[in-house]
TrEMBL record:
Organism: Chlorobaculum limnaeum
Domain Circularly permuted ATP-grasp type per the UniProt entry, residue ranges: 82-458
Domain of life the protein comes from: Bacteria
Cleaved signal peptide residues: none
Protein name: Circularly permuted ATP-grasp type 2 domain-containing protein
Amino acid sequence: MTRLFDHYLPQSDRFFDEVIAREGAPRSHYDIMMQRFNQFSAADIRARRELVNIFFRNQGITFTVYGVDEGIERIFPFDLIPRIIPGSEWEGIERGLVQRITALNLFLSDIYLNQKILRDKVIPAELVLGSKHFRREFVGVRPPLGIYIHVTGSDLIRDAAGRYLVLEDNLRTPSGVSYMLQNRIAMKRAFPVLFDRYTVRPVENYPQQLLRTLQEISPTPKLDPKVVVLTPGIYNSAYFEHSFLARQMGVQLTEGRDLVVNNNKVYTRTTRGLKIVDVIYRRVDDEFIDPLVFRPDSVLGVAGLINAYRKGNVTLANAIGTGVADDKVIYSFVPQIIKYYLGEDPILDNVETWLAGNPKHLKYILENLDKLVVKAANESGGYGMLVGPESTPEQRERFAEKIVENPRNYIAQPTISLSRHPSFFNETELAPCHIDLRPYVLYGKSVSIVPGGLTRVALKRGSLVVNSSQGGGSKDTWVIDN
């Protein structure tokens, strides 16, 4: 019988391989996993994959792809080879994320209350005040505990040297945590024996940690604050996650039509009448949250919600206006933000970034479009992006026109050598596929981070795009005790 890893060829000076070291030997924390997978036949792998697929179908674990003819609902692609992170390595990631989230929260508090960082010219004021997601309406509004970003999903990558870098921060309505939780259940069903050989830190208590965080930010002290999840509805790409988290937390899943504002207080409609709401875990973007303040044509939000929020009668998680801090232009200043507020050098570095709004940077970007990755400042999901080495001259020409027309809206980064991990390219063949990592950070009275997160994987051969909407999938992520 051919052993699964016998034909896995990871070697490349351009990419860090998570499993095999440059000298060709397995990294020590993968030894047991590789030995076990090498014992499986092709039939074993197919049987376990089918077991996982049945579980995902029965649980309704799907995502939505817009703009395809064959239908929008798909089972979320899942790769059977887990990603393993030693505990000592994870501790460095954790410290870096706590530092970063602490500084970003201080930044948000400053720009909405004092704007000292702008007066000190650490960041050009026009970049912050001109950001698409800066909400002038909330200058002077302080949320409970002074916390703006209660749930964060920062995307980490590893470069060719194996260093962890922050690719971007997701501070508005970060998604994917439900897939992290379901991936763990799927792996335990398919490969229970592996969990006997490793001490894997648990992720299953994330919903309880999330609920505790949401209760801690209640605008008024209560023994049992009323928390609801606000979803745009069943046609949203992350609706499975909204309903899953509400169910796991034991709270009500609501749409805008289920909530009503009376006398600047928010109530939810129930079979027993109106019940006051203290905290809303919102999965609706700012511009759709209240038709009286933002888009008047929105049917997703709640009329009067913003007044209730301003009056301090309800907490929104995350706070209105947090998007200014995950603007990709502002991202480039995070090392300065950390230094300014904490007096520390960043533990986790940024990826080198050029701003098209800077004339010198713009010239460099336009001259090197074939080598760079160019991103729109406020797009996500792999959209609004040009991957230079994979683009045609015509695509680069069209993108250059967009950049010149609105330089503030674009950044560029080198084509990152994302690390690679063995993944199933077909039923039984392993190939090195590019991955990233999205850990989930909760911020209430303190900062807590679930050990691991969502490892996303580019399942198209050679692709650097890990987003599910662009052909990516995910892996179970194990943080193990050393």
